[in-house]
């Protein structure tokens, strides 16, 4: 797994915005999307003719419920994604796979016009190309050791993805910084926490956020275990 700067992003040009309610794309994550609205079909058409990049944004507040087809406000942090696979469907629809590339923040926004039905924005990097300070590197290495223990013998062992995650944790070719991103999108599911992880430029702070989210998850697993899951109806699981 490469770091998030491997794919180049031209911050000197506007990038298409694709805002959703609570879906947060994180760097390294690959997200499937079905594109069917005319404005976003146009967006994908034009993105594929260019860099193949769009920015996933999150609506701010509840105004989008009344103004979804207009231009409701969005939160400042976005994730620039690269279209790594696409399938054109009848009537101009698409199935795409979008891989998160890097964090960014909205510097200025451009509304749709006569030719372009979708929003674009000038973006700025958010926490990119940081030098990992020795104390941060130590904290990340500690996190790696801790997560390995929890996935092996701790409460996180109960997760259906525990073995898969252990392969990444134990693979020394996976940089610890990339591993933090992988854990973020694979194990942290609460939308508010995921947006915190997206909008936080400091790597050390993201490590703390991931650790806190996983400790909360362990608490939930312990509470569920106390309810004797062996007696649950067939088909129910920890996830």
In a few lines, what is going on in this structure?
With 239 residues, this protein is α+β, with helices and mostly antiparallel strands.
* Straight-line N-to-C gap: 25 Å
> Can you identify the CATH class of the largest domain?
Mainly Beta
Q: What string gives the helices and strands in order?
A: EEHEHEEEHHHHH
Task: Specify the CATH architecture of the largest domain.
Answer: Roll
The total beta strand count reads 6
Q: Figure out the total of helices.
A: 7
How is this structure best described in words?
- By secondary structure, the chain is of the alpha+beta class.
- The chain folds into two domains: 15-125, Archaeosine Trna-guanine Transglycosylase, Chain: A, domain 4, CATH 2.30.130.40; 134-231.
- Helices cover 36% and strands 22% of the residues.
- Strands 1-3-4-5-6 form a five-stranded mixed beta barrel.
- Mean pLDDT is 89; it is low at 1-5.
């Amino acid at each position: 797994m490469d770091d998030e700067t491997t794919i180049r992003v031209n911050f000197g040009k506007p990038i298409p915005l694709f805002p959703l309610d609570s879906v947060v794309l994180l760097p390294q994550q690959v997200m499937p999307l079905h594109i069917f609205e005319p404005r976003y079909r146009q967006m994908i058409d034009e993105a594929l003719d260019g860099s193949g990049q769009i920015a996933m944004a999150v609506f701010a507040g509840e105004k989008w419920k009344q103004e979804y087809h207009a231009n409701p406000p969005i939160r400042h942090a976005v994730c620039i994604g690269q279209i790594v696979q696409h399938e054109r469907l009848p009537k101009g629809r698409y199935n795409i796979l979008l891989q998160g590339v890097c964090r960014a923040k909205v510097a200025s926004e451009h509304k749709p016009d006569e030719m372009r039905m979708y929003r674009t924005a000038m973006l700025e990097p958010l926490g990119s190309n940081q030098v990992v300070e020795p104390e941060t590197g130590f904290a990340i290495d500690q996190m790696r050791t801790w997560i390995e223990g929890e996935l092996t013998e701790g409460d996180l062992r109960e997760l259906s993805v525990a073995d898969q995650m252990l392969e990444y944790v134990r693979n020394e070719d996976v940089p610890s910084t990339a591993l933090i991103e992988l854990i973020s999108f694979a194990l942290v599911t609460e939308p508010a926490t995921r947006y915190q992880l997206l909008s936080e430029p400091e790597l050390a702070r993201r490590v703390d956020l991931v650790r806190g989210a996983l400790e909360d998850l362990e608490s939930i697993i312990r509470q569920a275990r106390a309810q004797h899951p062996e007696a649950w109806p067939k088909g129910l699981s920890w996830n």
